[in-house]
């Protein structure tokens, strides 16, 4: 990792940005879970029941596989954007194959056109199940999807009316998923009457509603604000967002163009934007996996760590997703974050209690303590830094791993490092730097 940093330092800003996008041009689906309906004309109730029973174990494997993909892939920007859209279109259903399908759909469009992605999301089986599209009929419209597509996916709160929700819901009536997990339209359940939506009238269907939403400048503003919050700074610079949003709308919602503009801007590298954000749990786990080849002895321990850190992939807390920012930190997660590097170095952790969310209480109940055992390899890092003089060693490590400015380094970082061997001393010093709060700022 430090070697890669040094290599990047020899390239110009534009060369680094171009390489970042070039490495993410290729789209590789996750193909871990085979279709449970392959070869079937339809799915029986028993077949669907078996899918539900298997889904818990399969979605956990999907979780681990995606984290592994993030760790080893060259297409880091595409995976980062897939994670961003996973949180924007936050969904969780008890069908692992459908979650895999959705993940691949988000990956496909992650750097494409937001307009194409929104159309695909509106007909995605997992989203439709999660937001009750199956229950939306002309005789009894269900407003769940219509509300969320405006409140969360496009316009943002306060930029539509309850009337718009009701009329939008009518337009989406009849949208269905068949028993093979495919989108269909049931014309008998669709309301084909005239609707009034965002000041326009017509016999709108769901696709028309999506297109009207995309015509709104507020949609570009809302999406750009979320991108800025995630990639630049939680303190929004309205002037910059306004400029970016205008270009985003005029480009036809070209996500790659938006991200390229951000990464190529001088202000992106201003001091106020360096170390301005707390790293998400997934990013933190991936960073350790890349640096020291971290590998959990039991995969369920990785699940427990995600839970206590507050982000379990494929299980967002609700349709609004993870809040991020300071919400990543609470009394439980803070201690794990600050002790994680030493835990990895030592090969195990103190006992902890995962916070119960979706797991079976008998297995993951709050009254049951667990201990994480982990394997790691610090050799490459020690070899990289080991040649530095002792007086320069700490600076070399902090310069490599700390992005934001540090006023001073606590003397305990040096004094409590084990100096019984060069390997232990250097690896201990690295772990101590990784235990600093600044290590988790990006």
Entry keywords:
4% strand, mainly alpha, globular, 21 helices, two-stranded antiparallel sheet
Description of the structure:
- The structure is a single chain.
- The protein has 442 residues and is mainly alpha-helical.
- It has 3 domains: 199 residues, no CATH class; 57 residues; 160 residues, no CATH class.
- Helices cover 53% and strands 4% of the residues.
- It contains 21 helices and 6 strands.
- The strands form 3 sheets. A two-stranded antiparallel ribbon has the order 1-2.
- Strand 3 and strand 4 form a beta hairpin.
- The longest helix is centred in the N-terminal third of the chain and has 28 residues.
- It is globular.
- The two termini are 16 Å apart.
- About 3% of the residues have low confidence.
Low-confidence stretches: 356-367
Q: Strand content of the residues, in percent?
A: under 5%
* Rg value: 24 Å
Number of self-contained structural domains: 3
> Main sheet?
2 strands, antiparallel
Q: Give me the oligomer status.
A: single chain
Describe, in short, the structure shown:
This protein is mainly alpha-helical.
Spell out the blueprint of helices and strands.
Layout: H1 2-9, H2 13-22, H3 45-72, H4 76-88, H5 96-109, H6 114-122, H7 125-130, H8 144-153, H9 162-171, E1 175-177, E2 183-185, E3 195-197, E4 200-202, H10 206-215, H11 217-231, H12 238-250, H13 255-264, H14 281-292, E5 295-296, H15 299-309, H16 331-346, H17 361-364, E6 374-375, H18 379-385, H19 390-401, H20 412-415, H21 422-434
Antiparallel strand pairs: 1-2, 3-4, 5-6
């Amino acid at each position: 990792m430090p070697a890669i940093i040094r290599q990047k330092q020899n390239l110009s800003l534009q060369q680094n940005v171009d390489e970042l996008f070039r490495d993410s041009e290729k789209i590789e689906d996750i193909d871990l879970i085979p279709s449970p309906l392959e070869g079937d004309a339809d799915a029986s109730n028993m077949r669907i029941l078996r899918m539900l029973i298997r889904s818990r174990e399969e979605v956990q494997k999907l979780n681990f596989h995606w984290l592994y993909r993030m760790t080893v892939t060259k297409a880091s920007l595409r995976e980062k954007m897939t994670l961003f859209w996973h949180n924007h279109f936050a969904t969780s259903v008890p069908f692992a194959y459908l979650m895999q399908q959705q993940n691949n759909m988000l990956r496909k469009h992650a750097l494409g056109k937001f307009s194409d992605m929104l159309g695909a999301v509106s007909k995605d089986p997992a989203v439709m199940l999660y937001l009750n599209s199956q229950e939306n009929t002309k005789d009894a419209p269900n407003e769940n999807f219509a509300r969320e597509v405006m409140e969360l996916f496009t316009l943002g709160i306060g930029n539509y009316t309850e009337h718009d929700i009701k009329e939008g819901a009518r337009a989406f009536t009849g949208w269905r998923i068949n028993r093979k997990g495919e989108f269909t339209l049931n014309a008998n359940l669709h309301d084909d009457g005239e609707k009034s939506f965002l000041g326009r009238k017509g016999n709108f269907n769901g696709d028309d509603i999506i297109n009207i939403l995309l015509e709104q400048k507020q949609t570009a503003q809302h999406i750009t604000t979320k991108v800025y919050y995630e990639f630049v700074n939680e303190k929004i610079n309205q002037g910059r967002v306004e400029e970016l949003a205008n270009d985003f709308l005029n480009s036809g919602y070209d996500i790659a163009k938006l991200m390229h503009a951000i990464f190529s801007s001088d202000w992106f590298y201003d001091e106020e934007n360096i170390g301005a954000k707390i790293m998400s749990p997934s990013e933190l786990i991936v960073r350790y996996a890349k640096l020291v080849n971290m590998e959990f002895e039991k995969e369920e321990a990785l699940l427990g760590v995600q839970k206590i850190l507050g982000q379990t992939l494929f299980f967002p807390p609700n349709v609004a997703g993870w809040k991020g920012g300071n919400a990543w930190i609470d009394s439980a997660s803070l201690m794990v974050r600050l002790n994680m590097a030493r835990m990895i170095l030592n090969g195990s952790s103190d006992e902890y209690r995962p916070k119960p969310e979706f797991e079976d209480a008998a297995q993951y109940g709050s009254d049951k303590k667990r201990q994480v055992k982990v394997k790691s390899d610090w050799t490459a890092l020690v070899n990289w830094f080991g040649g530095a003089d002792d007086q320069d060693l700490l600076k070399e490590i902090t310069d490599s791993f700390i992005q934001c400015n540090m006023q001073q380094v606590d003397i305990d970082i040096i004094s409590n490092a084990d100096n019984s061997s060069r390997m232990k001393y250097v690896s201990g010093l690295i772990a101590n730097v990784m235990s600093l709060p600044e290590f988790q700022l990006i």
